Amino acid sequence: MIAYARMLSRYEKANVIGTKDFSEILLGHVLDSLSCLIFTPLRGAMKLADIGSGGGLPGVPLAIVMPDAEITLIEATGKKSAFLRYVSEELKLVNVRVVNARVEEVARDEVYRGAHDVCTVRALARLSVIAEYSLPLLRKGGHLVAMKGREDEDERAEGERAAMMLGGRLFGEIPVSQVPEAEQKERRLLLLEKIGETPDRYPRRTGMPVRDPLGKRS
Question: Which Gene3D superfamilies does the UniProt record give (predicted)?
Answer without folding.
Answer: Vaccinia Virus protein VP39
